[in-house]
Amino acid sequence: MKDPAVDPQYVIWLNRMLAGDKLALAKLVTCVENDSPQVVEIMEAIFPRCGRCVCLGVTGPPGAGKSTLVDKLIERFRTRERKVGVIAVDPSSPFSGGAVLGDRIRMQRHALDEGVFIRSFGSRGTHGGLSRATEDVVRLFDAFGLEEVIIETVGVGQTELDIMNIADTTLVVLTPESGDTIQTMKAGLMEIADIFVVNKADREGADQMAMELRMMVEMKDSAPSAWKAPVLLSQANRDEGIEVIEEAIARHQTWSQAVRQTRDSRAGGPGRRFLSILSYRFSQTLDRMAAEDERFQRLLRKLEEEGANPYRAAKEFFRDPGFGAQMFGKG
Q: What's the domain range around 319?
């Protein structure tokens, strides 16, 4: 693969990654996570090779046993010789910006498996339970040839909804101690769950919670042909219920294909991603202008010192050809 817009070193890494080099994949993932200037060119180059992997989202409150469940699912997928990629999104360290929990520790037994690639990210302050780079890393994994990609979200409760824009199938993992089912409705998890898993099912209240979730699923207003999320019980640490969960994942994916409801069609696909890219790049440009452009800095000082109308200033900003050239004329 050659692209004159891409730095020669990135071309080398791209070629090596596409040839199956894990180290090259790791370097490109780091570039994406650190928002290297070459990210757009990298993603543009690999985009035609994407669209083959199946993406599974695993979300839910902290302490629900998500990492243990993911570990068991990796094992199940590997028994079918499926190549697996895992993105574990953890809270960020306030000092380094890196992942605090490091979920790879729980999956260490897969570290030497050539068919598994695991990467932990810090959320770096983004909402929605995901790192900003997550979707691009899924595409890197896809282009590399990983067939099953699992995203484990940060587990922050009511801001876990972004996963539905990325995953083909979303598992919401709960425990009897995670609160009543009304809290689940408030968190919006009813809307994103393709499968509910009540983990740690040996604990008191598990059957009651499962029954209430099933009632909520049945009461949800939906078309007769719509998918109804199954509610499953598991004890991931004892490897109980994992086979049933894997079967439910397969059923949902079969249903999705039958109704042609891929993650792209559900989430707005390339159009949604295009708007996301523009929004982020515009934000970067504004930050750069605020830090480096003297004229822009004078405008900000004027607003602060003179108490000017910020709405009028914003309108005039977009009408100003000088500022417009900076916003739209630079990548």
A: 270-329
